[in-house]
Amino acid sequence: MHRGKGMKFVGDSRIPAVRKPNVPKDYSEYPGKTEAFWPNFLLKEWMVGAVFLVGYLCLTVAHPSPLERVADPTDTGYIPLPDWYFLFLYQLLKYTYASGPYNVIGAFVIPGLAFGGLLLAPFIDRGPERRPIKRPFATGFMLLALAATIFLTWESVIHHDWEAAEAQGKIVEEADFDKNDEGYKIFADQKNGCINCHGENLTGGAAAPSLVGTGLKPEEIKKIAHEGKGAMPPNMFKGTDEELDKMAEFISNLK
Question: What are the transmembrane regions (predicted)?
Fold first, then answer.
């Protein structure tokens, strides 16, 4: 188009006349040797994340998650245990001023302050330095959080009863029985306390063994009910002798 009298040109300032190559600026002259977020820094983050992701995938394939028995809401003796990355919070709730009447402090206040501090750390420490030794606040806070997490996780691991946990989560074969049987009704009666430890399906838990396929005779079962055994105290059964006979016969026939 030729220039002419009365001719006007309309352009868009968002479109550059000369297309520049997508090369980030050189920040080497700035304090801290900051680099461009895109693509330099973000590419490094993606590469490191990909390495860790592949490592975790290999770990899950080599060591699959263990399966436990079906959850039983009637098993009051079951001791729950969270995944390893929550063990430090689990251990925190065991201490005096973070459990019981102070449960709100251990469950909300302390974790809220810790994670809130981590979120605010980038806004509080806004210096250009990237070396840890010249960032005392951020470095100290991260070391404190890391040390507390490792310590609480370690304490939770060494004080947990792993044998009892394995026993309570063990998959056992359930017996096929009629819950309308009179012997089972006596077993399930709350006043006798049997179902609270041995479970609705008599498969036991952390506090009591399974009653399925014990091979015990009715007389032996009645003796245990009177004298106790292991963690079971004597005279737990509160029913009559006739009820105990029916329950013992029912348990001895479980296969």
Answer: 46-63, 102-124, 136-154
CA 253 to CA 255: how far, in whole Å?
6
- Residue 14's alpha-carbon distances to 11, 19, 25, in angstroms, are 9, 12, 20
Furthest-apart CA atoms within the chain: distance in Å: 120
> Residue 198: is it exposed, middle or buried by C-beta count within 10 angstroms (0-12/13-18/19+)?
buried
pTM of the complete model beyond 0.70: no
pLDDT the model gives residue 75: 66
**Predicted pLDDT at 54:** 96
Q: Crossing angle for the helix pair 218-227 and 241-252, nearest 10 degrees? A: 130
| 2 known member of a binding site | no
8 Å CB contact between 124 and 137: yes
One-letter amino acid for residue 216 of the chain: L
On whether 58 is known to bind a ligand per the annotation, the reply is: no
Determine if the peptide bond prior to 82 is cis (ω within 30°): no
Residue 142, helix vs strand vs coil: helix
**Tens-place pLDDT, residues 24-71:** 566 566 555 566 777 778 888 999 999 999 999 999 899 887 777 777
**Residue 232: Cβ-neighbour burial (10 angstroms; 0-12, 13-18, 19+):** middle
Burial of 186 (0-12, 13-18, 19+ CB in 10 A): buried
Check whether 160 is labelled as a binding-site residue: no
What's phi and psi for 95, nearest 5 deg?
-80, 160
Q: How confident is the model over 13-34, as pLDDT tens digits?
A: 566 666 666 665 665 665 555 6
Residue 105: how many other CB atoms lie within 10 Å: 17
